[in-house]
Design brief:
The protein has about 325 residues and is an alpha+beta fold. Helices cover about 35% and strands about 25% of the residues. Helix 2 crosses helix 5.
């Protein structure tokens, strides 16, 4: 506390201020609060609300699983794909982030507006080619651009991958994404204006094919209306179940009728000739089992419908 003593003139001035109301007795004068400044990077704008980003992240995680399953199924090898990050850039910043040669696939985002990009490391593409053509599926030491024929082979794999990805977006929109063209120089590809904001969904692939990155780039303007609609239109549970039932009903499954079984020695099999009769272990009056995906589901009697063989179902296995 200061030990200074006010002079008579200062005391009179203070009393006058109190009488005129310029100074209120007992009022705590709070110091001025400094305004908080929010930093904003105009080269990396953020236009997606947090709720919509969470929804997009869930879809992206499902896409990672779909991409991994698609590669594993088509190439008959183990491929693991994980979501790395979801980022927003201007298109110019996105393109300039690539320093090495990459396989850039221009996507028609139908029914969304505009075009998108699906980029894959060329090394991973060469590994996919090697595996698809009968090789072990290893990334070569020398990375080179794909030929037109190789682009077509890789495009078949990517088209199937896009078909699997479409199921991940089914709750929001029925997508029909197609590859418009392929370019080995991403800086020569202009899908949007350089200042337009894009969403970059980054995936990391690992496994028997080696390691690589897969990036899906889409304009924010193409996604905004879809994500806003996802907030307004909550899917009814009954409609969701109907959709799941519709998808399940369209799944192809193998079915076969088992005429019967028997046991033969190798010598008997070798000596089989035309006209020989092989006796089965069931009777002609017994119903034949109908197997679906190697599991018996029902029984029936054989017959014909027109010029085709058929089975009349007599009972269903419980």
């Amino acid at each position: 506390m200061s030990n200074a003593i006010l002079s008579n003139d200062e005391v009179d001035a203070l009393l006058s201020a109190i009488e005129s109301g310029q100074v209120l007795i007992g009022q705590n004068v709070e110091p001025k609060k400094e305004k908080k400044i929010q930093h904003y990077d105009f080269r990396r704008p953020d236009r997606f609300p947090r709720e919509q980003k969470r929804r997009l992240q869930k879809i992206s995680e499902d896409m990672a699983k779909a991409i991994g399953n698609s590669f594993s199924r088509m190439l008959r090898t183990n491929v693991n794909v994980e979501l790395i990050a979801i980022e927003e850039f201007s298109y110019e910043v996105f393109v300039n982030s690539f320093t090495d040669i990459t396989c850039a696939n221009v996507l028609n985002l139908k029914p969304l507006h505009g075009l998108g990009l699906l980029t894959i490391d060329v090394g991973l593409c060469l590994s996919v080619l090697d595996r698809g053509l009968g090789g072990p599926g290893k990334i070569p030491q020398k990375i080179r651009a794909l030929t037109q024929i190789e682009e077509g082979v890789v495009g078949v794999v990517l088209e199937q991958m896009l078909a699997d990805i479409s199921l991940c977006w089914a709750q929001l929109v029925h997508i029909e994404w197609k590859i418009e063209k392929v370019d080995m120089d991403i800086k020569a590809v202009q899908v949007v204006h350089s200042t337009d904001v894009v969403i970059s969904i980054n995936f990391a692939a690992s496994g028997d094919l080696g390691n690589g990155t897969i990036i899906l780039c889409m304009p924010v303007s193409s996604l905004e209306m879809v994500m806003i609609k996802s907030k307004l239109d909550r899917i009814d549970r009954n409609l969701e179940l109907d959709y799941i039932k519709e998808v399940v009903n369209e799944v192809d499954m193998g079915a076969k009728v088992l005429l019967g079984k028997t046991h033969l020695t190798l010598n008997e099999i070798i000596n089989l000739k035309r006209g020989d009769v092989v006796r089965l272990d069931n009777k002609i009056t017994e119903d034949m089992p109908l197997e679906i995906e190697e599991k018996t589901k029902c029984y029936g009697k054989p017959g014909v419908v027109g010029k085709k063989l058929a089975l009349q179902v007599t009972s269903v296995k419980k």
